[in-house]
User: Fold this.
Amino acid sequence: MIISISLALMVAGMLLFVLRGFDVPEIPLYLVSGLALSAFVGFGEAQGFLPESFVEPAIITELASLGLGILVFYTTSGMELDSRRKTSLDSFKSSTWLFAVSFGSVAGISSLLGIPAFGSFLLGLAASVGSTMLDFGIVKEETRAGHIYGRLTENTNFFTDLFAVVAFGGAISAFADAGAVTGIMSSTALILAALLLRRPFGSVIMRVTDGESELLLLSGVMAFVCSAVASELLGVTALPGIYAAGILMVDTELGYRVRERFSSIKDFFTALAFFSIGFMFEVPPTRYLVAALAVGTVAVVLRPLLQILFTRIQGYDLRTGFMSSLQTSHVSEVALLSSLIAMPVTGDLVFNSVAFIFAVSVVFAELVEDNEQYLFERLFSSYELDPEKTDLPENPSGHVILAGYDEKTEGIEDMFDREVVVADFDLERIEEAEERGLYHLLADLESSEAWKTMNAGEASLVVSGTGDGSVKNMVQEIEGPTKVTVDPDSDSVEQRLRSMLGSSIE
Assistant:
């Protein structure tokens, strides 16, 4: 077994080395390595030069479950939760509708195809849950710090994951005759306990371990294992516990430190997980392939269109809705792990269907991620910034543009006796500027259309306080005005920014 895994990883490593210049995503390569090993083992066993026990299916299944579980734990622990953000409430509303429509449509199609109820449930789940998990060199990390569509993506991902985990706990309990309500309540209790205990737990562990790296890593492993075991004891399988363990680390110093040290472990076991999934994969029959294609169509086409619609209805501009919709337009590792855990109940047909469409959607996500701006410009060539959140002076000239408006830059406008335009990608900040009577523009600051709309070339001063490298580069490329860029994460930003602004105006 160890020899076979080592050989598969060596093959995957060689493939990655050969294809490194083509920017090929790693997950499909791991899956292909597993498929290749499966074919080789099957041929070897048939010809008699390999023993039947060369690869043990039970161990392969355990590796896949463990690797996916670690991945769910790792990605969940990296979320940022802030209920005070307006994006949290907006994302909850849109996530509820997205989950209901996506789940209902695919579960209904699967039932019409004659797939059993639990299998239809899992396929509906796969269509309902997006993912930003591919942040370790497979698909680049999507959620960009500070961008409004990054926040929408993160919050939407959190809520759909939450719905899926709780629903799965209820379904498993119902099948085991423990009752769906009992399963839902147990799963919810685990997650709520993690939310309530995360800060005191983090403080206690940091104090007890005195910040020692090895002890912190063991603390993360302990939380992962204990929470998974507790979930199993409650009869809702390990998934709600794994998710709760990730929540336990969110937004804490302990979580940041554990995540930092957990990265290499996660990479290794994720590689093993997808190699194992490739080894286990078999092409499902026609009706399951049709259901899988329905999952892919909803995940890649319908769900993004609905998310654009919902974000537009809530007041966000078109580009924000488009970018946030693309970030989760592939099947989630949560759905894949759910179908794997449920294999003793459903057999391998549902798992193979979800694994197939998962691999296809990962490749699609990689292609889209590299061309999202091009796709937006092609699909919405007549795009104009949302006029409902745009208030600009007529033919602006000699004005000041504040790109990024928060507690560090609020009040800076009082230093000028000329027109000030606030540009931001955060609806809350734009509403704050509107309340202060400032000209304003709601737009993603990576969009050249936003800078043209503000007539940035005729401005006297452009201040970038976002800390985003792409925005800073766009500011520096503007010809004409004085440019000031400041890292908002630095100490005493407001004082230094005021000093810099004062000297730049003189």
About this structure: The mean pLDDT is 80. The domain at 56-379 is CATH 1.20.1530.20 (Na+/H+ antiporter like fold). The chain is about 65% helix and 5% strand. The CA atoms of residues 10 and 33 lie 9 Å apart.
